[in-house]
Design goal:
InterPro entries: AB_hydrolase_fold (IPR029058). This protein is α+β, with helices and mostly antiparallel strands. The chain has two helices and two strands, in the order αββα. The chain has helices spanning 2-17, 64-70, and strands at residues 40-46, 50-56. A two-stranded antiparallel ribbon has the order 1-2. It is globular and about 40 Å long. The two termini are 28 Å apart.
């Protein structure tokens, strides 16, 4: 239930003001850092806990062809 509430709030804020985390609140206690140019980027890991993570471009991509073959 908490995940659905978080996603709903972030999508609503993004649709209204183009920022999914305009202020930290109990439901969303983190600020989503904007994407910057370069080879390293920050992203929001949305799971049981919300947390910012950092990755190199290309590192975190899913190999959709392999996943599709498994289905």
């Amino acid at each position: 239930y908490k995940l659905i509430s978080r996603l709903t709030q972030m999508w609503t804020d993004f649709a209204k003001i183009r920022n999914p985390t305009p202020a930290t609140i109990d439901l969303i206690p983190i600020t989503w850092i904007l994407l910057k140019s370069g080879n390293i980027f920050d992203y929001l890991d949305i799971g049981k806990k919300l947390r910012m993570k950092t990755a190199r471009k290309g590192e975190q991509r899913y190999n959709w062809k392999k996943i599709r073959k498994k289905l």
